[in-house]
Every structure is written in structure tokens, then in C-alpha cells.
Amino acid sequence: MLRSPSRFVRSWITAALVGSVLAGCGSSPDEPASDEAKPAARTEVTVEPIKASTELTDTNGVKVSVQKEPERIVCLFALCDDILTELGIVPTATNSALLSHPGFLGEEKAKEVDVIPGGFIAPEVEAILSHKPDLVIGLGDTHGKLAPALKGATTFWPMQPETWEDSVGYLRDVAALTGRTAEGEKAEKAFRTKLAAAEKTPSDKTALIIYGSDENFGVATPEADVAASLFPKISRYPWKSRGVEGSYSLEEILARNVDVLFVETMSFGDADGKLSEKLAENPLWSKIPAVKNGDVHEVNSEVWAKGRGTRSLGIVLDEATAALR
């Protein structure tokens, strides 16, 4: 049986997943351009201005305040690294490997960022505070327990992204708090433009994202996974969350005639090798249309599963739309 992810299980396995934002589409290629503006190549997107502030209520209702614009920021999960990169900020320290991806800082520059010991689940408080951070950003359901130990020494911001709209909201919130408003608006517009273009020409293929390290893998669903939340409007994605105890059988996935499979291989302990290679040992695997047609794509789990921000999701859209053509 294939275990579908709960919010906590998903955030743990992946190291970890817009009320305030309005976006609109302008003239399509078939409509005449106005005299005052040049037509966009495909889709024109506008975003609301971001106002700088040292105090706000974030996209999920959490109140955050700082004495001044934070300069030393410690990231305890990859969405933080993603957002800071979009805003042109390098974190003071991190416990994510996302920054080494060539779409972010790259391997050499990422080595210059200190790593918090203790891993994703239990980052060391003393190590965090040794960096004298103005702001520490973590995943709420995993790092919320650190709040008492950090109280009084720094500002702790627990985030809980579940959809791409949440991620955009957090981008805007961090941009406001750091005063990087222009950078935030630019990043949001770039992502929304790319998403609008993908939604304008959706694929008729059935897609599926799976993740794990062995045959006991999970199904990423739009309700519980940020990357998967992009898929219903760019492809056929008939996968719904079934809660903590819900599961999919390989037979059921075979029956859905999946055309394109995206595979996120996770590594734990001594586990090695690609998830798709391990699943190939099951005779049912080879009968799935995506497998038969060579449309199984091993993707970077740091980006697809853990990043969850607009830069990661832009990469996801690029790779997904290319595979779904």
C-alpha cells in the first residue's frame, strides 16, 4: 500500500509544504493592444504593491514583529532559503541543501553559508543563537517547539505553507519585513506570469508525483503538498488527500493510466539508489503507461519537495510543463 502524506508526515519526510494578493490577466494574444502599452507575449500579470513594515500578520494569521529590518536571518527550512534568494538576501545560516542547487547560489557559494547542526527535526538552539540572528524562520509543525528557547533572544517566525498561494503570501510578508518590496513584487510577478502561461495551455496527460526512499512511498496531493498544488490546472491530476491513514495501492495507480510520473527520491540513513529503480522490482510498475513509455522523471527533491517557494516552484513549472508536452 502507498501511504498518502499528512501535513506533518510530509514536512518531516521532505525536510521537511492569497488573501492579500490580487492578480489579473490582461490582453490575450488575440486581443488588440492598447495605444499606451505593448502587448505581452502571452499573458500579462499584475501584482499589488508590497508595503514595508516591521509588524504584520502573515498569510496564515501569525503576528510577527521586529525592532528593525532584519539583516541576520537563520533558515530552518527550505522555503526560507527560497524566499531570501528571491529577495537577494543570503541567510546567515541554514539547515537546508537547497542553496547548493544551480538555480540558487550554486555549490561553491552555498558552502559559504553556515549549516545549523542537529538536522531538520532537531536543530541545535545554541548553534542558532550563536549566529546572533535578528530573525529565525522555521516550519511551524516541526520547529514550533523551539519557540520557548528562542524567546527573548530573537524573533521566531513559524510558517506553515500548504499551497502555492501560501508560498506567495509568505514571499510578500518577508519582503515587507525586510524592506525588499521591489524584489518581492518582481519575484511574485515572474512566478505568476509563468504559472498563468502554463495554465493557459494545460496538458491532457495524467500526472502523478510520488516520493520516498523505498517501496513504501507517498503520493503528493494538492491539499498537502505545495508543488502538487500547481498541477490540477496544468494537467490531469486526479489525486486527493486521504488523510493520515489514507493510502493508494499500486493497482489503483495503474488503473488511473498515469502518463507522466515525477519521482522524488528521499535519502535516509543507509538508503541509497533511485526510488524509481527500486520500484522497478515490482512487476506492476512496468505496466504503468508512464513507465512503459519512458516518461518517468526523477526530479530534485530539494527543489520539488522542500523548496516550496516561488523560485523552486518556477523550476517545477519549467520541468513539469516540458515533460507534459
**Which residues sit in consecutive blocks of at least 5 with pLDDT less than 50?**
1-41
Shape, per Cα inertia axes: globular
Radius of gyration: 20 Å
Largest sheet: 5 strands, parallel
- Class from helix and strand fractions: alpha/beta
Strand segment count: 15
Gist?
The chain is an alpha/beta fold and 325 residues long. It is built from 13 helices and 15 strands.
Descriptive tags:
single chain; 325 residues; alpha/beta; Rossmann fold; five-stranded parallel beta sheet; four-stranded mixed beta sheet; 13 helices; 15% strand; globular; disordered N terminus
Give a structural overview:
The structure is a single chain. This protein is α/β, with parallel strands linked by helices and 325 residues long. It has a domain at 50-178: Rossmann fold (3-Layer(aba) Sandwich), CATH 3.40.50. Helix content is 32%, strand content 15%. The chain contains 13 helices and 15 strands. Strand 7 (93-94), helix 3 (107-110) and strand 8 (114-115) form a beta-alpha-beta unit. Helix 2 packs across helix 7 (164-178) and helix 8 packs parallel to helix 13 (310-323). The radius of gyration is 20 Å and the shape is globular. The two termini are 30 Å apart. Mean pLDDT is 87; it is low at 1-41.
